[in-house]
Structures are given as structure tokens and as C-alpha cells.
Amino acid sequence: MSDLISHGLKLHLVGEHSDLLAQRLGIRSTPLAESDGAIFMVSATSGIVRADSQVWVEARELYIPSVVVITDLTAENETDFEDMALIAGKILDPVVTPYLVLHLDDGSPAALIDLATQMIHDHSSGSLQIRESEPEHQEVIAEFREEYLEALEAAGDDAFENALIYPALPWIESNDLGLSEIAQFLDRIPITR
User: Fold this and answer.
1) pLDDT, tens digit, for every residue of 110-122?
2) Domain 11-100+152-187, CATH 3.30.360.10 — does that match?
3) What is the rounded average pLDDT of the residues 88-92?
């Protein structure tokens, strides 16, 4: 999936399902003080535990680029990605959502729409296919896209790499929806430690 380890990136993973994500990405967790970046796992069913929010504070003090990964996003779950991103942004620090989740008719997550490019990252067939979005998709995401682009502009270039802005990304364990997008953000982290 990723060559993150091969080029020396050290990541600290925190939270429920972090071992599984590390396995899927082909990485292992390192101590926070020795890490180039951090991944904070937030479950849409169980939320954020106090110990994880304390590690978040430590990561902020160390200016470690961090990604919030939201898990347990199923059709049965009443809390969706956008709701959980808002909750994470209140408990941790404000987050940005570079992607929104698109659902099938039965409510199950199947694709992501990139708010910057408006391209759809479709995982419904089991492999990633990137395609143009439809006008109705663009209309639905218009407000979210505007907020995201404004946040990026206000934060400045390299805001993520400098630990000034924190992306919240979905990850669906069953079909790995979001895994490649998580890896793309991790690839942007400079190796400094």
C-alpha cells in the first residue's frame, strides 16, 4: 500500500483500531517524541477517550503534523463522518475535512469526494477508481468545499506539514475506503526527527 517506512517516516498511532490501520498501511507506531507525524483514531461509535486527547495536547506542543482518522462508519451507525469530524474538532482542535463520504442507496459508505478537486474516489468495486463528479454532487458539497478552501487559504501553504491544520479523514475497515487518501497525507509529512 505505502512505502512510508521505506523512506524513514516515523508515525505515532493513537486510539481504537490503530493496530489494524498500521498493519494496512505497512507501518508501526513509534513513541510520540520520536515521531514525524501522528494518527489519531476516532471511533464514530465510542468517540475519543481522555488519554487520547491528552496525547493530542502533547503532539500540539511538539508541533507534530497529525491526521484524525474516523472509523466505525457503517450504515447502521447514526453518527456519520461529518458529525464525528465536528465532534473531534470540538474535543481536540478544529479539523478540516478534505473529503466527504458518499453512500450507496442502502446507506453504506462507498466513495469519497475530494473537496479540492471535486473528483470522486470510488471504492464500491473493491478497488479505487477516480472519476469526475456529477453536477448534483458538486451542488451538495458546495458549502463544505467553500469552507475547506477558505480554511486552507487562511492557514497558508504547508499548514498541514507545519502542524497548523489537521485533516479528518474517514476509514472504512471493511473495504479500506479512505486508506489511500490517508497514505497521501502521510506522504506529505517531512522527516525531521
Assistant:
1) 899 999 999 999 9
2) no
3) 94
